[in-house]
Design a protein that fits this description.
The chain has about 80 residues and is mostly helical. The protein has helices spanning about 20-30, 35-45, 50-60, 60-75. It has one domain (about 20-84).
């Protein structure tokens, strides 16, 4: 499941982040819990508020978030357990 591959720079180039998967997971969590980047950075060791803010502003958009949500919902619908 590569839902996180929906995110990236607006230019369409490959992300130049050290760990794009990790950064996108953390940023998705922060956005989903409605925490601010600096508040989240106080609770998540090893990442700064600036890094989270940069990722959210430059690599995420509402359209991309909705596409990632659709990927996850469709993947869940294909599971045997969701058919019961």
């Amino acid at each position: 499941m590569d839902w996180w591959q929906r995110f990236g720079p607006a230019s369409g180039n490959e992300p130049k982040l050290d760990d794009p998967f990790g950064r996108y997971v953390i940023t998705t969590f922060v956005k989903g819990t409605n925490m601010g980047p600096y508040e989240a950075a106080r609770h998540i060791p090893g990442i700064s508020g600036h890094e989270l803010s940069y990722t959210a502003n430059r690599h995420f958009s509402i359209v991309l978030l909705n596409e990632a949500i659709a990927d996850l919902v469709n993947a869940h619908a294909r599971l045997d357990i969701s058919q019961a």
